[in-house]
Amino acid sequence: MDPVGKMIRGWPRRVAEMNPASRTMLFGLIGAAVLVVVAISVLSSGATYQYAFTNLSPEDASEAAAVLKASGISFRSEANGAALAVPTSQVHDARLLLASHGLPRGGGVGFELFDRGDFGASEFTQRVNLRRATEGELARTISRLQAVRSARVHVTMPEKGLYRDDDRRATAAVVVNLQPGRIMTERELAGVRHLVASAVPGLSADNVTVVDQRGSVLSGDRSESGKLASQAREIENTLEQRIVDVLEPAVGRGAVVARVTASLDTTEVETTQDNYDPETAAVRSERKTSETIASDSG
């Protein structure tokens, strides 16, 4: 028989045969050894890390990692590359360093696209760069909203045709990636549409469509079904806010999450009634005939 296995199997019996004082001392030594091992592992792992930025786009994460590496600041890429963690003592330094390089930009490019001063670019290239810069700046602004994690903006600039009827109006589409559990109210959606319309010449707010990450049209759908969906969302938001306002004073601010699903009945019923009061005489129909006879005498 294996002597090591025999000793292990006989260990519980030996512990049971010890007096209480010896058992207490034995368990104390085992606990102290475990604490020493944990302390050594923590100390050997180095400094603790803290997130400097999260929810980074792949472009921003790549540029930020290059800046930190060039500056000699150690970092970890976490959350599938969407977050950068740095030593806790260097968090503020890392954020200031990245901010000085204009990072994170929030995805896409903005008006820094013109910082290079490419004087040899054609007029077409300048127009394309202006559209790209406008889209990037709008996406960054929309991403600052509390309910929005990230945003993309696509703009079609107005074009004049040979005839007035051939002119193409400006249109825009906004794709928002919402924070988990968050929704955008009708007021916020209207603000996004007017923001985009104000930044693009010749663009009307009615020609701006807002879509979420699931492909659902949030605003800009002028069809009958779109209007009904907008009305349902407005009712849901109103009821959810009322529930939160009623319960928060009792359970605490931020401790209530309300979700309401509204289903609208769009059935139309047309009714025609003819009412007659039997207590009073009423004329149902009246016909008047007038006849005049004239004659000549003498």
In short:
By secondary structure, the protein is of the alpha+beta class.
Main features:
single chain; alpha+beta; Alpha-Beta Plaits; GMP Synthetase, Chain A, domain 3; four-stranded mixed beta sheet; three-stranded antiparallel beta sheet; 8 helices; 42% helix; flat
Protein architecture, described:
The chain has 298 residues and is of the alpha+beta class. The protein has four domains: 3-38; 49-101, Alpha-Beta Plaits (2-Layer Sandwich); 122-159 and 169-219, 2-Layer Sandwich (GMP Synthetase, Chain A, domain 3); 222-263. 42% of the residues lie in helices and 13% in strands. The chain contains eight helices and seven strands. The strands form two sheets. It has a four-stranded mixed sheet. Strands 1-3-2 form a three-stranded antiparallel sheet, with helices on one face. The termini are far apart. The mean pLDDT is 77.
